[in-house]
Amino acid sequence: MTARGTVVVDVERCKGCELCIPACPPGVLVMSDQVNGHGYRFPLLEPGCTGCRACHDVCPDYVFEVYRFTAGPADEPARPGVA
Amino acid sequence: MINTDVPPAEPNRRIAGFSPELLVTEEHPLCPGCGHPIAWRMLLEVLEDLSLESRAIGVVGHGCYTHIITTTDIDFLQCLHGRAPSAATGVKRVQPDAAVFTLQGDGDLVNEGLQETLHTAARGEAITSIMVNNGVFGDTGGHMTSTTVIGQRTKTSIDGRDPDRHGFPIPVAELLCHLPGAAYVARGAVNTAPSIARTKKMLRRAFELQAAGAGFTFVEILTMCPTGWFVPAKDGGDYLSGSMEAAYPLGELKGG
Amino acid sequence: MGTQLMKGGSAIAASAISAGCRFFAGYPMEPFTALLEGFSVQMPGAGGTCINAESEIEGINMALGASAAGARAATGSCGQGLALMQEAIAEAALNELPLVVFNLARGQQDYFQATRGGGWGDYRTIALAPKDAAEAVEHTQLLFHLADLYRTPVLLYGDYLVSGTYMSVDTSPRHYGDLAPKDWALDGTLGGTRRSRVIWTWRRGKVWDPGPGPDKHWQAVADKYERIAATEARHESSRTEDADTVVVAFGTTAPFVEYVVEELRGDGVRIGWFRPVSLWPFPELALAEATESARRVLVYELNAGQMIDDVRLSVTDRTKVVPIGRVSQDESGLKQGELLAVDAVRERIVGHLDPRRPAPGARSGRAGQRGA
User: Fold this and answer.
1) CA spacing 20 to 30 A to C281: which of B159, B199, C113, C165?
2) A5–chain B nearest CA distance, Å
3) Cross-chain Cβ contact B70/C55 below 8 Å
C-alpha cells in the first residue's frame, strides 16, 4: 500500500497511554518494546499511513505531527503554528 | 518501521501538530490517557479560530483541570468549588464584551455547584459553561460524584455504584434543557477522533451564541479518567463509550 | 445632592453608589432587606447591576467575580446570611479582591463573626460599626476606599436601627485619597501577550511568570493585615481622662451609653465612655490609655460577652473589666430587645458604681445590685 502521509513522534513526550493505537483507522501504529526516558513505551509507525491525523487528535500529549504527501510543491500548512 | 524522528523528505504539507498559541507549554502533570488536555485543546483552538484571544476570561473551578490556568495565556479567575457560574455572572456583567467561560469538572459543577449552574442558566446569563465530565473526583484521588454511573467503581463506591446505597446519577445537561434561559446545551466526548471534531464544533457554536447575546450556553465534554476508573490508560476510550455514553448520550440536546 | 431625609437602607445604597459601587448582589433577610431594596431601585439609574441573588453564597460569589473584573462590588445580609458567606470572604482575603460586605444584623451577637471570621486561613476583615444611619453613610464610602486601598474584604456592622431609621443624611461622594489603578483586574485584553493575569488564592502564577506560591503568598497576606492593624484602628471616646469608670459599647448601643454617661456626669459621677468604631482592628492602644486610671471598665454589649474579649486583651489590668450587658432580643428575634433602652443602661451602670458612694440623685433605687 502506498502511504499518503506520515507522522513525526516526540518519543520523550509520550506517556504510553496507547490511545493512538485503536484510533488509527489503517491500524499502522504499534507500541514499541523499548521505553523512553520516563519509562513509557511509545508508538512506532508501520507502512500505510493515510495522514488522517486521528492519532494527533486523540493524543493528550502533543506527541504527533502529521504530514500528508503532496503531488506538487509543498502547500501552506493547514493550520499555522509552532511545533 | 517508518522513521518517525524527522519530517519526511518527500514534498508534504504538515496538517497536524500545531498546539494552540495560547497554550504556552504542552507539558502537564495529568495522568497518561487523561482526556482533559484534549478538551483544553479544543477550547483554545475555538478561542483562536473565533479571534477571542484578547477578549477571553476563564473562570475555573477545582480539579485536575485547574492546571490550565498556569499554562494558558489568557485572564483567569480561579474560584471556589462550585461557584464558577456565580463568579462568571459578576465578571460578565462588568465586562459584557468579554468571552466569559467557566471550566468545571463534574464534581465541581454537579455536586457542589448544581444550584449555581441551574440558577445561572435560568437567568440566561451570557456565559459559556463547560463541564469536563469523567464521573469521578479525580483530584481528590478518585471518589464518587453525582455523575458516577451505576456500576462504576470509585473509592467510595468500591463495589460499583448501587442505586439502593448511592442513589442515581444526575444528568445535568438534560435538566438544563428545560430552562428557557439556556440557549444551547450539548454533550461531546474526547475518546475518538470523530467525537473530538464534533465536540470542537459544539464549543464553537456555544461561543458564537454567547457573542450573539443568545443566553446561557453549556457544553459537557465526557473525558477519560483511567486512573479514577481503575482501568489501563489504553482502555479509557472504550470504557467511556461503554459506560458513560449510555448514561450520557452525545449530541446537541438543545439549540442545535 | 445635599442633605435629605432617607431611610437607612436607602441611604447606604445611595452612598455606595456615590462611592462608585456598580455591582450589588444579595438575598433578602431582615433587617438587611431594606438595603437590597435600596440597591434594586437605585442601581439601574446609576448604570450598575443589582441582582436579587438566588442564595447568599451565589450573591457573594457574583460580587467576587464583579470585583475580579474591576468593579466596586458589594453584597450583604444579616449575621445568619453572613454565616453562609464566610468561605467567600476568606477567599477574597486570600486572593486579594476588594469586597464590601454589609451585615445589617439582628443585634450585637455577630461581633465574633465580624472580627474573627469563619473562613479558612490567616486573614482579618476590617470591620466598622456605625452608631447610626448617618455614620453608616460615611462608613460605606470609607469602606469602598479601604477595600480598594488594601485589596481586601471589609465589613460594615449595622442593624435594624441603621437599616430602618429615617435620618437626615448627605450621601454625596467623599474623597479619601487617590488609589492605584486596578491593573490586576481581569478584562481579557492581555490574552496572548504573555502578560495575562490570574487571580488565585494559591498564587502560583503562570509557567512563564511564576508567582510566590501558597506559602510565601499567605505569609504576605498575613503581613498585610499586620500593617492594616497598625494604621486603621478607629474609636471615639469622651470624659475618660479623669474617669473612675469607663463604659465601653459599640454600634447602635453606644449612643444610649453616651446619653446615660453624660447624665451621670451631670450628677457628679466621674464616668466616661469609649466606643470602638473599628471592631477590627480593635483600638487596643487607645482603650488601654483611656482606661489606665479608671477603677472599673464596664462593657455594655447585647450578647453573652464577645467584645469583652478584646476589651480584656487591651486593658492593662484585665481584672478591672466587668460585663454589664447580656443577650437581649425582642420577641421577633429580629432586633435588640429591652436592654437597648436608656433606663436599662442606667440601671446596669449605676449598679456597678462604687457601692460605698451611691451616685448622688440616682434615678434608680437599686444602686449596688447587679442587673438580672
Assistant:
1) C165
2) 8
3) no
